[in-house]
UniProtKB/TrEMBL annotation:
The keyword S-adenosyl-L-methionine does not apply. It comes from Eubacterium cellulosolvens (strain ATCC 43171 / JCM 9499 / 6) (Cillobacterium cellulosolvens). NADP(+) binds at residues 10-13, 34-36, 69-72, 92-94, 121-125. One of its GO terms (biological process) is diaminopimelate biosynthetic process. This is Meso-diaminopimelate D-dehydrogenase. It catalyses: meso-2,6-diaminopimelate + NADP(+) + H2O = (S)-2-amino-6-oxoheptanedioate + NH4(+) + NADPH + H(+). Belongs to the diaminopimelate dehydrogenase family.
Length: 328
C-alpha cells in the first residue's frame, strides 16, 4: 500500500511537496491543509481535497505522514509539536540555534502520542548537516567550512524592505571565489565573515526616496550587512520582477583534514549544491525523509528524529537488494 501524505500549509514548500509526491512511485497525496479558506487555495492536483486545519482531526486514520510546510520563524515551533500529537510529521525547521529546544518540544509530543517527529529536514539543516557529520567522523583532525549561495536570502531581503523609502528588494549571498580556492588548497585558512561571502542588493525605491541614505543604511546595518562587502543597485519594479523573481540557491560544505604520522597528508571533502529552485529541492528531501519516517514507524520507533538518525537505505523506494546491485 502506498504511503499516504498530508501537506500542512500551502506556500512554496507545500507546492513543492505536491510536485515531489507525484514523482514518488510509492506515495499518494491524501489532502492539503491550510489555515486559510480552502476555496481560496488552488492546488495543482485534481481530486485531492483542500481542508481547513480546523478539521484536521478527521484525518488521523487517513494519513501516514504529515509534511509540515509552515515558516520556521513562527509557524513550525507551534505546528510541529501540535501535529506530532496526531500524526507522524516531518518539518524543515531551519533556525539552527533553536534546534535543541524544538527537538525537546517535538520529542515530548511525539513520545506521548506514539508518533515520529522528524525535524530540520532540507539542505541546511539537512543534507549539509549529514555531510558535516560524515566528514567529521572520517577526518577527526580537520576544519569545517560552509559557504552559501549564490542565492536569495529571505531574511536579508526582508531587512532591506523594512528601511524607510524602500518599496521592494532582493538580496543575494555570494561566496567569495578566492576563499573557496583557499579552502580547496588544503591550507586550512582562517577566514573572517567578510572574506567568505559578499552581499549584493537589488532595491526598488519609493518615489522621492533618498538613494544615498538608503544605501548607507543598508551597508551599515549591524548583523545583516556591516560585516560584509555589500553592493547596492537601484532598479525598477519591472526589472526586479523580470530578472530577480527566481528562487535559486545552493552552497558548499567542506572538511579539510590531515592524516599520517606527521600529518603530512591532506584530504578535502567537498559537497556542493546548485539549485534552480530552493523550495523544490528542499521538498524533494522532505519527501524522501517522509518515506523513512513511515518505515521507522512501522518498525516501532517513536519520538523526535533528525536526518542524523536515518539509515540511507530507508530514503529510497528501491529494495535493499536493488540498492546493493546498482548504487552500492
Ligand atoms: P511560505 O511563506 O511560502 O509559506 C509558509 C506558510 O505561509 C504556508 O504554509 C502557508 O500556510 C502560508 N502562506 C503561503 N502563501 C500564503 C498566501 N498567499 N497567503 C497567506 N498565507 C500564505 O514559506 P516557504 O514554503 O517558502 O518556506 C517555509 C520554511 O521552510 C521557511 O521558513 C524556511 O525556514 C524553511 N526552509 C528550510 C530549508 C532547509 O534547508 N531546511 C530550505 C528552505 C526553506 P497556510 O496554507 O496554512 O496559510
Amino acid at each position: 500500500m502506498s504511503t499516504r501524505i498530508g501537506i500542512m500549509g500551502y506556500g512554496n514548500l507545500g507546492r513543492g511537496v505536491e510536485i515531489a509526491v507525484k514523482e514518488a512511485p510509492d506515495m499518494e497525496l491524501a489532502a492539503v491543509f491550510t489555515r486559510r479558506a480552502p476555496e481560496s487555495v488552488s492546488i495543482l492536483t485534481e481530486n485531492v481535497p483542500v481542508v481547513n486545519t480546523a478539521d484536521v482531526k478527521d484525518w488521523t486514520d487517513k494519513i501516514d505522514v504529515m509534511i509540515i510546510c509552515g515558516g520556521s520563524a513562527t509557524d513550525l515551533p507551534k505546528q510541529t509539536p501540535e501535529y506530532a500529537k496526531l500524526f507522524n510529521v516531518v518539518d524543515s525547521f531551519d533556525t539552527h540555534a533553536r534546534i535543541p529546544e524544538h527537538f525537546a518540544n517535538v520529542d515530548a509530543a511525539a513520545k506521548e502520542s506514539g508518533h515520529i517527529g522528524m525535524i530540520s529536514v532540507g539542505w541546511d539543516p539537512g543534507m549539509f548537516s549529514l555531510n558535516r557529520v560524515y566528514a567529521n567522523a572520517i577526518l577527526p583532525d580537520g576544519k569545517d567550512y560552509t559557504f552559501w549561495g549564490k542565492g536569495v536570502s529571505q531574511g536579508h531581503s526582508d531587512a532591506i524592505r523594512r528601511i524607510e523609502g524602500v518599496r521592494n528588494a532582493k538580496q543575494y549571498t555570494i561566496p567569495v571565489e578566492s576563499a573557496l580556492e583557499a579552502v580547496r588548497s588544503g591550507s586550512q585558512p582562517e577566514l573572517t565573515t567578510r572574506q567568505k561571502h559578499t552581499r549584493e542588493c537589488f532595491v526598488v525605491l519609493e518615489e522621492g526616496a533618498d538613494a544615498a541614505r538608503v544605501e548607507k543604511e543598508i551597508k551599515e546595518m549591524p548583523n545583516y550587512f556591516s560585516d560584509y562587502d555589500t553592493t547596492v543597485h537601484f532598479i525598477s519594479e519591472e526589472e526586479l520582477e523580470k530578472n530577480h523573481a527566481g528562487m535559486a540557491h545552493g552552497g558548499f560544505v567542506f572538511r579539510s583534514g590531515k592524516t599520517g604520522v606527521n600529518k603530512e597528508n591532506s584530504h578535502i571533502i567537498e559537497y556542493s549544491l546548485k539549485l534552480d529552485s530552493n523550495p523544490e529541492f528542499t521538498t524533494s528531501v522532505l519527501v524522501a525523509y517522509a518515506r523513512a519516517v513511515k518505515r521507522m514507524y512501522d518498525e516501532g520507533q517513536r519520538g523526535c528524529k533528525t536526518v542524523l538518525d536515518v539509515a540511507p537505505a530507508y530514503l529510497c523506494s528501491q529494495s535493499g537488494e536493488e540498492l546493493r546491485a546498482h548504487l552500492l
